[in-house]
Amino acid sequence: MSNQTKGIVYTLITVLMWGVLAIALKIASGVIDSPTIVWFRFSLAFSGMAIWALFNDPKALKILYKPSFILVISTLMLAWNYIGFMWGVQYTTPGNAQVAVQTGQVVLAIFGVVFFKEKLSWMQGFGFLLALIGFWIFYQQHLTALPADKSEYTKGTLLTVSAALTWAVYAAMQKKLIHQHPVTTLNLFIFGLPVLLYLPFANFSSLAHLSLGYWLLLIFLGMNTLISYVCLTLALKYMEAGKVSVLLIMNPIITFVIMGILTWLQITWIAPEHFSVLSILGALLALSGAILVVRKKKKAEVVS
Question: What Pfam family is a match, any one (predicted)?
């Protein structure tokens, strides 16, 4: 298997994990509060990383008590990303949250121009405009179709966008940190600190009365975090970051398809999500614009 094929396989696993994530979070939010879900996700992911490091790279554990300032800030950004996205899914819909969070990719590209002196092509500028128009159409269509309180939907959308912004800051800082520490070492701290941060807000009494099905769902959410980030790391090892980013942006399509099927089947354990022709068009414009923003010219990839 070639490196390119390996990169595609690992990226597609990440896309699948993230594609079903919002749906799983929406189901879990019906019986478990958001901070508890986020705490459990980080706890399970950190436990997996810590066990691996203990047996394979014990020196990596040193980063837990000797982190750099930029690593701490980066981790705080990701910690908010998790809770912001969680609340966004809770107050809106899985499809809306998946489209809104893609603004993080666009903002990251802007950070690249402002802070890393990367050149912005006219095609990327057009993609940025296209993404804004597409998201606005998608948001307005969903807002119009809502029979309930629209302010809650707007709040959820803003929380998701805030999660996207903090993810962009996190990713930008990772560009510097990746040259200072191995990715596995970074993930050990990145998963570890939020466990302590969210511990005071976790409601353990709600976990005591969970059914087996919800326990399995929680375990899946924790494993989703671990598997997706490990596969993403491996994908970046075998394939250019630009190509990985383009594939990752496609994960909302998986969410749309699954939610469409669940709505058609009239499933009762998750609220239905209806997509009009205009909302689908808006989503496609937003995703296409994001792809144009992160897509690099072939020459630029060869030079880098």
Answer: EamA
